[in-house]
C-alpha cells in the first residue's frame, strides 16, 4: 500500500501522507478530487489561519466537553453493568434452559432454578437485580440462623407434647412465606407439582417449599421412637466405622465399597429428614457438600445408582428444598446418560461416570428388564426439575419400546433384554421376583406420577396383573396362603423371592388410585403370605427365598427353605407393603406385624457396637450367622417404611402427593393437567 514513489510527492507531515495518497489510489483516477480528503485538507488550512488565542479557546472547549462526557459515562455505567452482567445463579439457570434458545419451546417446563439457601449464590430478580434483599429459598431450618431443631426434636422425642414455638420470622421469611415440616412436606392440592408441559414456565420450586405447615404436628408414638432409636444405632455404626463409604461392615468395624460414593449416606438422607434427625441430617449434608464427587473413574450400575443416588438426592431436594441436592442430582443424572448410547437405546447396565463410557456386563450384551424399566420415575423427575427433556426422552423411549415387544406372556415379561437388538432374551421364564419385579411396580407408579394419563403404562400394568393371576398365583398347604410362584417354560415352580413382597403394596396403591377392588383383595391375601414368610421361621425373619408346599404333609408348614436361601439381607419389601396396607385400610394388625419384624431385627441382627447386619441363617436363633454387612436399603427403605407404618399421620408423605421410587425415595406426583 505504501510506496516510495507515493512518499516522494507527499506533503511533509506524516499524518497526511497515507490519508491523502491512499484516498487518491482508492479513487482510481489521478484527476478525481476525493471530497473527504479535500475537506480535511482545507479544514487544516483554516485551522492554521486562526490566531493562537482562537485555537487555544477552541481546544479548551473540546477538552471541557470531553471531561463532561467521561464523567457522565461513569455515572451511567454501574446500573448498565448490573443489567448486563448475570449473577452466577442466572447463568446457571440460563444454561439449564436449552428450550429458551430453541425455536421450539422445550416440552418440559422451565427448570428448577438452583436455590441459594446456603448463601452460595445471591438470588436476583431479573428486574431489579442489585436492589432486592437476599431471599433464601428452602426450609428455614437449613438456613444460617439460630437453629430451632431442639424444640422440634423435644416434641418428637420427649413425652411432653409442647407445640413448637414459632421462631420470630425475619424479613426474608416474611417474603418467602415457606415453613417446612420436618415430617415431610404437605402440599395442598392447589400447590401440587406441575406436570411436564410444552410451555416454558417460571422455575419450579421443590414441593416442600410450597408447603404450609398448618397442621399441629402429630406426636411421635412409642413404636416410631423405637424406629428412631434403631436408626440412630445403625447410623452410629456407619458414622463410626464407614463414614463416607458405601456400606458398613458392623462386625469388622469397617466398610465395603461398591461405587465409592457414600451409598448408605445418600440413601439415608431423606429417612433422616422424615424421622426428624436434624443433627444427623446436617452432618450428612456437609459431607455431600464437601466430599461427594461424581467425577470418578468408577463403573456404577445404572439401575442401582439411579434408584439409590439419583432418587435419594431428588427426594431429599424435595423434602428439604436445599438446592445442593438438586445440583448433585443433575450431576449424577448427566453422568449416567452415556448408558443410553446403545444400538437399541436399551441402556447398558454399567456406566463409568468419570469417563462417560458405558458397557454391558463382561459376559453378555443383555440388560436386566427390571433394571432398564425401573429408572423412569427418577429421570422423568429430573427432566421436570431441570427443564432438560433429554432425561425423560431416554427413559420414555425404553418404556415405549418394551410396550411394543413380543415375547410377553399375558403381560408378563422375560428377565433379559438385548442392548443390540432390543429384543427380550431367555424367553419363557416369568417371575415377579429378581430381575423383573420393579418393571411391574414402575408401570403403575409412572402412571401415577404422570397424573394418570399415560394409558399404555396402565394397560401394561393391568394386563400384567391378569397374567400374574392366570399363570403365577397358587395356594399353599396347609394354610391356603396365596402366593406368587414362577413359570419356566410352562412349568410352575412354587418358589417365591422375598422381593415379590413389594406386590401387595403396589396392588393396594393401584386400588387406592381407582383400579379394581380385586387388586385390593389380592393385596390382602398376599401380605398375609409375606407376613407368614416371617412368622413361620424360627427367628421370625424371612429368608431370601421360600418354596411353598402345594400338598399337605404331616408336620410341614406352608413355607420350606432351602439351605442356600436362608439368608436375610434386612430387605424392606414386606414392611413396605405393610405400610401401604395400613395406610389404605387402617387395620392395626399390619402395624403389629411390622412391630414384630422390627423386634426380630433387633434381636437377631443388631450389632452392639453400632449397626445391623444381614444374616446367613434365619432358621437358627442361637446362631443366625451374621454376614457382617448392613445394606444401604436398611436405612433408605426398611426403617423408613417402619417409621411410616407406625405413624397415624396420613400427611407424613401423603400418598396422594408423593410416589415412592423402588428405593423408598418419595417423589412428587405431577398435578393433573
Ligand atoms: C432395593 O435396592 C430396591 O428395593 C430394589 O427394587 C430391590 N432390591 C432392594 C431391596 O431389597
TrEMBL record:
The active site is at 304 (proton donor), 437, 544 (proton donor), 573. Its EC number is 3.2.1.-. It comes from the Eukaryota. It catalyses: N(4)-(alpha-D-Man-(1->2)-alpha-D-Man-(1->2)-alpha-D-Man-(1->3)-[alpha-D-Man-(1->3)-[alpha-D-Man-(1->2)-alpha-D-Man-(1->6)]-alpha-D-Man-(1->6)]-beta-D-Man-(1->4)-beta-D-GlcNAc-(1->4)-beta-D-GlcNAc)-L-asparaginyl-[protein] (N-glucan mannose isomer 8A1,2,3B1,3) + 3 H2O = N(4)-(alpha-D-Man-(1->3)-[alpha-D-Man-(1->3)-[alpha-D-Man-(1->6)]-alpha-D-Man-(1->6)]-beta-D-Man-(1->4)-beta-D-GlcNAc-(1->4)-beta-D-GlcNAc)-L-asparaginyl-[protein] (N-glucan mannose isomer 5A1,2) + 3 beta-D-mannose; N(4)-(alpha-D-Man-(1->2)-alpha-D-Man-(1->2)-alpha-D-Man-(1->3)-[alpha-D-Man-(1->2)-alpha-D-Man-(1->3)-[alpha-D-Man-(1->2)-alpha-D-Man-(1->6)]-alpha-D-Man-(1->6)]-beta-D-Man-(1->4)-beta-D-GlcNAc-(1->4)-beta-D-GlcNAc)-L-asparaginyl-[protein] (N-glucan mannose isomer 9A1,2,3B1,2,3) + 4 H2O = N(4)-(alpha-D-Man-(1->3)-[alpha-D-Man-(1->3)-[alpha-D-Man-(1->6)]-alpha-D-Man-(1->6)]-beta-D-Man-(1->4)-beta-D-GlcNAc-(1->4)-beta-D-GlcNAc)-L-asparaginyl-[protein] (N-glucan mannose isomer 5A1,2) + 4 beta-D-mannose. Keywords: Calcium, Disulfide bond, Endoplasmic reticulum, Glycosidase, Hydrolase, Membrane, Metal-binding, Signal-anchor, Transmembrane, Transmembrane helix. Its main location: endoplasmic reticulum. GO terms for molecular function: calcium ion binding; mannosyl-oligosaccharide 1,2-alpha-mannosidase activity. The chain crosses the membrane at residues 56-76. One of its GO terms (biological process) is carbohydrate metabolic process. InterPro entries: 6hp_glycosidase-like_sf, Glyco_hydro_47, Glycosyl_Hydrolase_47, Seven-hairpin_glycosidases. It is found in: Endoplasmic reticulum membrane. It is an enzyme of class 3 (hydrolase). Belongs to the glycosyl hydrolase 47 family. This is alpha-1,2-Mannosidase. It comes from Chordeiles acutipennis (Lesser nighthawk).
